[in-house]
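Subject: complex prediction, re-run

Hi both,

The earlier run crashed halfway through, so I resubmitted it with identical inputs.
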Amino acid sequence: MNLRRDVFQALADPTRRAILLLVATQGMTAGAIAANFDTARPTVSKHLQILTECELLEQQQNGREIYYYISAKKMKEVADFIEPFRKMWDDRFNALETLMKEHQTKNL
Amino acid sequence: MEPKTKITAEEGKQEIIITRDFDLPLSLLFKAYAEPELVAQWMGTKVLKLESKPHGSYQIETSNAQGIVVMRANGVIHTFLPNQKIIRTFEMEQTPFGVQLETYESEAVTEGTSKLRMQVVYQSVAARDQGLKMPFAQGINWAHNRLEEIISKLK
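This time it finished cleanly. Structure:
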């Protein structure tokens, strides 16, 4: 895995997050995406390249045009990255709850 | 159903907020944090020291199945208000993770239920993100190790 193309790093950039929001509902060409930003076209192209490399975006050829789509699968994976952290705390708190319930019964 | 444990980690912030609803009276929830023997049991760690009072300190140690210490952490307790609040630091010894500032706030919801809100502040946004991703990264490592184990058995 190339760490330079880490998905979390890709998502850390506000322009890239804005691009993902744009294509969330429908596929768009690079030109149509770029029209939404004040930044130079090559800068937008670079962002699209990064998002594609880390598989957050998918390309689809439609005639002469290339459309960019959001990858629902990859986005789901990213949304879930926090889940192991939550699970770790949930397990700890469950252990606390179980222990203290026993403690409560014993001390009645 | 809403999960009992919730995590809030806003982009670009140095903190993580962890909230949890307990099916326990407030006094019992707080006791689980205050008494060394109880902490040891639910955390699954050895409590070397725990002085539950302002200006107190604590040290915990976790060993693997072979009895080798894999993690030692310590901190000082700044505030200790029974049934309400604990403010303490947390630092894993001999690691580059830095120190964390933890604030625990608890309150009763009903007579038999309570709520805990835990704020963890890291030294930097990068440290916060690293802390957040640690269990995720460990999960990948474990999966990888398991895979290696299976492969080595196949040889």
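Chain A touches chain B at residues 8, 12, 81-90, 92-93, 95-101, 103-104 (CB under 8 Å).

- K.
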